[in-house]
Amino acid sequence: MSERTAPPSAPHGASDPAPHAAPHAAPPLLRLADVQTHIGPYHILHGVTLDVPRGGVTMLLGRNGAGKTTTLRTVMGLWRASAGRIEFDGRDITALDTPAIAQAGIGYVPENMGVFSDLTVAENLRLAARQGPADPRRLDWVLRMFPALKVFWHQRAGVLSGGQKQMLSVARAIVEPRRLLIVDEPTKGLAPAIIQNMIAVFRELKQTEVSMLLVEQNFQMARAVGDTVAVMDDGRVVHAGSMARLAADEGLQQRLLGLSLAAHQ
């Protein structure tokens, strides 16, 4: 990918220390403490405790059905926590509704991409700009990351390929500055070339002041962009630490995930 400039209008906070800069590291941007979630009669989250540091990328990994998507949806208020506490920048957001959580500065890209198929690419991005027309400089930066969207600017989103829809979904989430970006499986079902493009995009996003929490099944992506990692099993976080350490320890990978990252390049 060609070199790009940083986005304009980014929020303050670039000087925050890295998440592993203890003992004086800043408190996490997002914190879940013993969060439990029921969906109807089903008890899905059994006390999730998770910290998302400021200024980095936290990967949320685990087998299918471990509770990863439920965790993201609970943070966003789409499903209500039945117990526990969720804090964003020290503020309790556990009981807030989804619009208020988004207004606090959290962007969310769901697994189903969340684009409006009957609207054009341009209309999708305009609708995502909550504060009015998108800053032209920031929109130009977004389109430089996703040049295909400029090509299909006046086309309905429904005619885009799966990879292009995923690009549009991420673009919608970042068309305005966000303090935290939550993305559910950004590379799911994408061709290898598109995955490489997504890796480049998220690496560029890492150079901005947005923190990220990503659910991801593609371990090449997880290792390429992750700083910290939390592994879930049966509705709980069973491991948290450095992504680099997990990527280097095949025994730990086998124990936590039942597979080796080296076998999934």
Low-confidence stretches: 1-6, 9-23
Write the element-wise H/E pattern from the N-terminal end onward: EEEHEEHEHHHHEHEHEEHH
What's the assembly state of these chains? single chain
Tell me the fraction of residues in β-strands, as a range: 15-25%
The chain-level mean pLDDT equals 88
Report, as a whole number of angstroms, the end-to-end distance: 20 Å
Largest sheet: 6 strands, mixed
Pfam family, one: ABC_tran
GO molecular function: ATP binding; ATP hydrolysis activity; branched-chain amino acid transmembrane transporter activity
Family: Belongs to the ABC transporter superfamily.
GO biological process, one term: L-amino acid transport
Notes on the structure:
With 265 residues, the chain is of the alpha/beta class. It has a domain at 112-177. Helix content is 32%, strand content 24%. It is built from ten helices and ten strands. A hairpin with a 2-residue loop joins strand 4 and strand 5. Helix 3 runs parallel beside helix 6. Residues 1-25 are annotated as: Disordered.
Strand-helix topology:
Blueprint (H helix, E strand, L loop, with lengths): L29 E10 L2 E11 L4 E6 L5 H8 L5 E8 L2 E2 L5 H6 L2 E4 L11 H8 L7 H10 L1 H5 L10 H13 L5 E5 L7 H15 L4 E5 L3 H7 L2 E6 L2 E7 H6 L1 H8 L8
Parallel strand pairs: 3-8, 3-9, 6-7, 7-8
Antiparallel strand pairs: 1-2, 1-4, 4-5, 9-10
Helix pairs in contact: 3-6
Q: Can I get a quick summary?
A:
It is built from ten helices and ten strands. The chain has 265 residues and is α/β, with parallel strands linked by helices.
Name some characteristics of this structure.
six-stranded mixed sheet, four-stranded antiparallel sheet, globular, alpha/beta, 10 strands, disordered N terminus, 265 residues
